[in-house]
Write a structure and sequence with these properties.
Strand order of the largest sheet: 1-2-3-10-5-8
Helix content: 25-40%
Number of helices: 5
Radius of gyration: 20 Å
Shape: elongated
Largest sheet: 6 strands, antiparallel
Low-confidence stretches: 1-5, 7-19, 201-205
Oligomer: single chain
Length: about 200
């Protein structure tokens, strides 16, 4: 192999390393966006927990089959998982099909994840929709987290730590979400709201 060939290999190896590093960060961010543990993502994807952990720590180069399984479990396209951060355009557009949707246990509430994946560790925001009677029960987020629910349609009730309040269209409820909390549609028609979750809120320490 000539010098040119060796240099080409070095470039390819450097590119593979950069891609692997970005992949690990992306998988971790997506997993946290869905509030999934390593065990839960392993169960949903069929990829061993140890392998996912190694991917997130940039300690392994996963096969395309492994990336595909993780992409399916995280409900995101492979090209989005593989996309390098430095190559992303400043002006970015996501289609309806690219927007992950979470559904409540009762099937009556939906959360469309519209927040930027790069901010998921400290800022998350969603489009929230609930059919009449819909209930969304959430586990506690990390200590100091605050959630803001701005209602655009219908009427929603929030219960957290024994406190209960309601908001109609044009009103906003803000509350600590570092404890179990519940959102209910108490109106007789569909309700919609913008939900923003701020993690690691220093003001609440």
């Amino acid at each position: 192999m000539g010098i040119e060939g060796r240099e080409k290999v070095k470039v390819l190896e450097a590119g593979a390393l950069a891609l692997s590093s970005q992949l690990g960060k992306t998988v971790q961010r997506l997993r946290k966006a869905y509030n999934l543990s390593l065990s839960e993502l392993s169960e949903q994807s069929g990829v061993a927990k140890s392998i996912i952990s190694q991917i997130e720590r940039n300690e392994t180069n996963p096969t395309l089959a492994t990336i595909w399984r993780l992409a399916q479990a995280l409900d995101v396209s492979i090209d989005r998982v593989l996309q390098a951060a430095d190559d992303e355009p400043f002006l970015e557009k996501s289609s309806r099909g690219d927007t992950p949707i979470l559904v409540s246990d009762d099937g009556k509430c939906k959360l469309a994840i519209i927040g930027w994946i790069k901010t998921v560790e400290w800022l998350q925001w969603y489009d929230f929709y609930a059919d009449p009677g819909g209930v969304l029960e959430s586990e506690a987020h990390q200590r100091g987290s605050v959630e803001s629910l701005s209602v655009s349609e219908g009427e929603l009730e929030v219960e957290v730590g024994g406190a209960i309040d309601r908001a109609k269209a044009g009103e906003t409820l803000r509350y600590r979400c570092d404890r179990p909390h519940t959102i209910r549609n108490v109106s007789q028609k569909p309700a919609a709201a913008m939900m923003v979750c701020i993690l690691k809120a220093a003001a609440m320490e």
